[in-house]
Amino acid sequence: MKILVTGGLGFIGSHTVVELQNEGFEVVIIDDCSNSTEKVLDGISAITGTTPLFEKLDLKEKDKVSDFFKRHQDVQGVIHFAASKAVGESVEKPLLYYENNIGTLVYLLKELSQKNKASFIFSSSCTVYGQADEMPITENAPVKVAESPYGNTKQMGEEIIADTCRVAPNLNAIALRYFNPMGAHPSTEIGELPIGVPQNLVPFITQTGVGIRKELSVFGDDYPTPDGTAVRDYIYVVDLAKAHVIALKRLLNQKNSDNFEVFNVGTGKGSSVLEVIQSFEKVSGKKLNYKIVNRRAGDITSAYADTTKANQILGWRSEYTLDQAMKSAWDWEQKIKGQ
Ligand code: UD1
């Protein structure tokens, strides 16, 4: 069965392609390589023994997207990762984000609405909850006013899919609300490849560990948390990738379509920035250079998932601990430094 993975050369996309191929799906990737490289195909192939089909294509090019679906009429499911994801940039360039993340979503849904049956998985984010009032966060927690155009594209994306599923009897969809993805494939064939200075905590830590960065700035130690640093739910990327395959299978096996569901994908455990640093120091045996600085604008105090819904309905749960995920991130960083 053929599955389209948009953004399949990216961090979460590439790990999901591996899990799809491991489960016997035929994968075709669309990626514009704006934040990824074709070399990722070699990594996927080294792990699975199969090179997925790949088309370098920008989803904003509507006619080319239509042409793609004409040529690949046997695509039965789409996992849609392709999107811009830098929060700060989205504040500077809101229209770019609405065009990249919303415009392309609309084109894809239009194409899928014309098919007899189609299943759609959307990359959403825990960012839709903002600072939730209660921890852990269930899917019933209210969606709060978005802090950035990026966050808004995730909220609007979910609404657009829900509205479309309501009227498209052939389409069913799931949005996965990721918490904080981290780590790399245990083979070290694929992993995170941030362009420029990493904005996210874990790649910044591992780059500091190998000496690419001088020191980590810890953004604030005056949060109302046990050690004063902000708390997040760090989910191992392979666990997250597997959640996509399970969610896709649920949709493909569903008799009734016109249905839309959302699931949290996290570990259920919150870790503070200092705990993440401790994890790095434990698995690497290195002391990390860091200093405490002011809070980063727009950061929330705490976010960790209640994963009961994904446990019960999808039968999915995370398997890797923070230390195991950190070890994989560290192995990967050391490998790519040597290249
Ligand atoms: C960020 C995005 C979120 C996105 C997620 C994807 C923001 C406001 N939110 O979440 O929308 O879905 O990435 O992974 O950017 N930290 C440091 N020093 C650093 C980097 C981070 O102390 O150099 C701290 C942050 O203050 C935060 C934690 O580490 O408390 C995690 O930060 P990060 O990896 O950027 O993720 P989020 O901010 O949770």
Short description:
40% of the residues lie in helices and 18% in strands. It contains eleven helices and 13 strands.
Question: Which helices and strands occur, and which strands form pairs?
Answer:
Blueprint: E1 2-6, H1 11-22, E2 26-31, H2 40-48, E3 53-56, H3 62-71, E4 75-80, H4 87-92, H5 94-113, E5 118-125, H6 149-167, E6 171-178, E7 180-182, H7 201-210, E8 216-219, E9 231-232, E10 234-236, H8 237-252, E11 259-265, E12 271-272, H9 273-284, E13 290-293, H10 308-314, H11 322-337
Parallel strand pairs: 1-2, 1-4, 2-3, 4-5, 5-6, 6-11, 7-10, 8-13
Antiparallel strand pairs: 9-12
Helix pairs in contact: 1-2, 1-8, 3-5, 5-6, 7-9, 7-11, 9-11
This protein binds uridine-diphosphate-N-acetylglucosamine (UD1).
Residues 87, 125, 127, 151, 180-181, 199-201, 204, 216-219, 230, 232, 273, 296, 298-299 line the site of uridine-diphosphate-N-acetylglucosamine.
Oligomer: single chain
> How would you write the strand order of the largest sheet?
3-2-1-4-5-6-11
The unique ligands bound to this protein are: uridine-diphosphate-N-acetylglucosamine
Q: Total strand count, please?
A: 13
Please identify the structural class as seen in this structure: alpha/beta
Helicity range of the residues? 40-55%
Q: Characterize the largest beta sheet: strand count, sense, and whether it forms a barrel.
A: 7 strands, parallel
Shape: globular
- Strand portion: 15-25%
* Low-confidence segments: none
- End-to-end Cα distance, whole Å, is 36 Å
Secondary-structure element pattern, one letter each? EHEHEHEHHEHEEHEEEHEEHEHH
Mean pLDDT: 96
Radius of gyration computed on alpha carbons: 19 Å
Number of helices: 11
